[in-house]
Specification:
The protein is an alpha+beta fold.
Length: 374
């Protein structure tokens, strides 16, 4: 067997910036080199070459998944840090040093926005009472019209500054995206308090725009359209960058002034669905040859490895999907973004079996996993 599956993976600095694009590109280059070596050494034996390629693909697929997961966890740590009310400090050093220069700049922008002060009215009222109403017997007197005007202006400024910060985080915020007030309508303390509460909630929600559901196991394009486009777009792009490292799409960083539209989010989700379907076909039919040994017909394949190999392949094929219940199916199934289904069961002979139904594969395609080697 070729040494492709055991060739060393590209090294990364655990204490340096985790730049997802270059890291995935390095793994992709190493993956292609291992594939080329396997083809050169085993081109004369298509079955062995396909089996070797399966293990190569699983190894590098896991490495890519680990890199993306590390990036997801890093983004989650950064966004959770930024979501803390009133946060003006940079993330802890171990987190900060793993961020790229662009991410550090975007984070500093958010922190600078958080540092913009809002004026607390309590101490100010006491000062205005002192200056405009005066004190008699050590007690403040009613505030005059000048004092009330000053406090109203500050309260209004506080309110609109808070609303602006909400809309920087969530341009489509359901409560404040369409906020219009008549010039003569006075802003109350209750208005300011509600706006600050909504800002805190928006900051909490913003802790997750880079984090795909169930560690990238998402099903874009099927519901969740009530979410802001940036949430849908970023989740789809994070997954897409793992499936297709060559994609030109990049997620929108925290604090970005530019925002994706609904059409942008829809396009990213469609691109992910197409990439997931293409990835599965290339995985199971590399070079237009089905992996494994042919059984009773082309769509029936056999591979060694037993339950462990079946579980590993099912995990690889079912990424980016979501579990679905099929009452008549004797196993578990996952629905994929492109509309396909990947399932795992035990056949009548007791062999672990994977069923795959996606465009581009033979109808009724499935793989039986035997113990030992074929």
């Amino acid at each position: 067997m070729t040494d492709g599956p055991s060739r060393p993976l590209p090294e990364t600095d655990p204490n340096g910036p985790l730049d997802l694009g270059p890291a995935l590109t390095a793994l992709d280059d190493a993956h292609q080199a291992a594939t080329a070596k396997n083809e050169a050494e085993w081109g004369h034996d298509p079955n062995q070459q396909a089996t070797n390629q399966h293990f190569i693909d699983v190894r590098f697929g896991k490495a890519k998944r680990d890199v993306v997961k590390a990036k997801v966890e890093l983004n989650k740590a950064v966004n959770s840090w930024l979501a803390q009310p009133g946060q003006t400090e940079r993330p802890p050093l171990p987190v900060w040093t793993q961020m790229t220069a662009g991410e550090q700049k975007a984070t500093d922008t958010v922190l600078a926005q958080n540092a913009q002060p809002t004026t607390e009215l309590g101490p100010l009222i006491a000062q205005v009472e002192e200056e405009t109403g005066g004190r008699r017997g050590g007690r403040p007197q009613p505030i005059g019209s000048e004092g009330r005007e000053i406090i109203s202006e500050i309260r209004t400024a506080n309110y609109w500054r808070t609303v602006e910060r909400i809309l920087e985080i969530e341009p489509h915020n359901g409560r404040y995206s369409e906020t219009v007030r008549a010039p003569e309508q006075e802003i109350t303390d209750e208005d300011v308090a509600r706006a600050r509460e909504e800002l805190a909630r928006a900051q909490e929600r913003a802790a997750g725009p880079f984090v795909p559901e169930s560690e990238l196991g998402i099903r874009p394009g099927f519901g969740a359209r009530t979410e802001p486009p940036i949430f849908r777009y970023n989740r789809a792009v994070e997954a897409l960058r793992e499936v297709d490292p060559q994609t030109q799409r990049t997620p929108y960083p925290p604090g970005s002034e530019a925002r994706p539209t609904e059409a942008d989010a829809d396009a990213a989700e469609r691109e992910l669905a197409e990439a997931v379907n293409r990835r599965i076909v290339e995985y199971l039919k590399p070079g237009r040859r089905y992996i494994g040994t042919e059984g009773s017909r082309t769509a029936v394949r056999t591979m060694p490895g037993g339950q462990a190999a079946a579980d590993a392949m099912f995990e690889e094929l079912s990424k980016f999907g979501r579990p679905v219940q099929r009452p008549t199916y004797p196993g578990k199934s996952v629905s994929l973004p492109g509309g396909g289904i990947v399932s795992l069961r035990t056949n009548k002979d007791g062999l672990p079996t994977i069923d795959v139904n996606v465009p581009g594969l033979a109808r009724g395609y499935h793989i039986h996993f035997t113990q030992g080697e074929n």
